[in-house]
Predict the 3D structure of the following.
Amino acid sequence: MASEWVKGTVVGKHTWAEGLYSIQVEAPVADFRAGQFVKIALDIAGERVGRPYSLVNPPSERPLEFLFNEMPGGPLTPSLSVLNPGDAVWVSAQAGGIFTLEAVAPAANLWLLATGTGIGVYLSILRTPDPWERFERVILVHGVRSGADLVYGETIAALAARWGERFTFVPVVSREFCPQALGGRITDALTGGELEARVGARIESAFSHVMLCGNASMIKDVKQILEARGMVRHRRNAPGQYSTEHYH
Ligand SMILES: Cc1cc2nc3c(=O)[nH]c(=O)nc-3n(C[C@H](O)[C@H](O)[C@H](O)COP(=O)(O)OP(=O)(O)OC[C@H]3O[C@@H](n4cnc5c(N)ncnc54)[C@H](O)[C@@H]3O)c2cc1C
């Protein structure tokens, strides 16, 4: 990924819950593919501190949009979370990453599993024609700790209105009871069978592609479940049935 930085300006900010924000940024970043990330940086105590963030906006829309958690004591996010419209940020000139639908074979069902801020990347992908041209059904699963972390409700409702029965959204909330949501973690909902029962489809290699985005332990656990079902990691040169993007 190129290390060249371009100047960006924050043009919007939304606080979803304590420590959970999205910001919109105008910056002359090159064209990107849905599923990619850019680096955002701030100059802090004389040093440029940059971290990767997935693009939430689809490639056809601007401004750039990012969803992030403030990590107390983290090098970047405490400074990122206090930015307001009009403030400057650095953005990498080029997007990077291969967590895209590129070279993914068409299949019946596309499962998009996210923990926390990992949902952002799917909101970019879902607002392109690609998944709808290549999959019959798309299932978006969002694992969070509390109901307040279920972000982008309006965007998800608009997708549901646009795509009807072809689109299913399943919230999974681990630390409190939340109506409409499955309880526990994504891994539990998968091993216990509740997730597939809710969706009315099985995750099987013959007719599914699964994308996993977010924390490493969810990805590791789900990956084991998928591999036990005979699914293999997708690579551009060797297409498989699941793809991963680790945030932490
Ligand atoms: C390809 C890629 C894309 C990413 N996209 C996003 C994104 O869209 N939104 C986002 O919030 N983060 C994203 N991250 C993580 C992000 O780059 C930073 O690590 C994070 O924002 C914390 O930055 P920091 O400098 O404050 O602390 P860091 O030193 O980077 O991390 C501090 C601690 O927080 C944990 N952590 C990092 N990210 C998260 C998170 N999202 N939720 C909970 N714990 C976390 C780390 O494991 C570490 O223990 C992405 C990471 C990668 C590799």
Notes: The CA atoms of residues 123 and 155 lie 8 Å apart. Residues 37, 51-54, 66-69, 71, 74-77, 97, 116-117, 120, 245, 247-248 surround flavin-adenine dinucleotide (CB under 6 Å). The mean pLDDT is 96.
